[in-house]
Amino acid sequence: MSVKQGDVVTHAIATEWGVGKVVEATIDRVSILFNDGTTRKIACSHFDDLVPAAHSSYHPVVPEVAPLVAAKKGVKAVSKGRKSKQ
């Protein structure tokens, strides 16, 4: 299979990876972000294992936003123009 950036594919052998979108493509390998949130690099020798998939089937996991470090430490935000009392 000819693979280019933006293609949506599945891996015929590793079906547990789900559907992925090609985020980088070179002559030697492609990097694919799969629905499980993992980016995997596939060597050109395995391009034949990649199968086109419907764009609508690509739903990557959105990473959870980590809480701010300041919020964890109990630091209060200070508005601009106001000085905090010490």
Structural notes for this entry:
It is a single chain. The chain is built from 1 helix and 5 strands. With 86 residues, the chain is mainly beta. The chain has a domain at 8-61: Roll (SH3 type barrels), CATH 2.30.30. A 5-stranded antiparallel sheet has the order 4-3-2-1-5, with no helix packed on it. Strand 3 (29-34) and strand 4 (39-43) form a beta hairpin. The longest helix has 4 residues, at 69-72. It is globular, with a radius of gyration of 21 Å. The N and C termini lie far apart (66 Å). The model has no long low-confidence stretch (mean pLDDT 82).
Secondary-structure map:
Blueprint: E1 8-11, E2 19-25, E3 29-34, E4 39-43, E5 50-52, H1 69-72
Antiparallel strand pairs: 1-2, 1-5, 2-3, 3-4
Features:
single chain, 86 residues, mainly beta, SH3 type barrels, five-stranded antiparallel β-sheet, 1 helix, 5 strands
Could you tell me the radius of gyration in angstroms? 21 Å
Determine the mean pLDDT. Answer: 82
Cα distance spanning the termini: 66 Å
Instruction: Provide the structure class.
Output: mainly beta
What is the CATH third-level topology name of the domain at 8-61? SH3 type barrels
Q: What general form does the structure show?
A: globular
* Main β sheet profile: 5 strands, antiparallel
Number of helices: 1
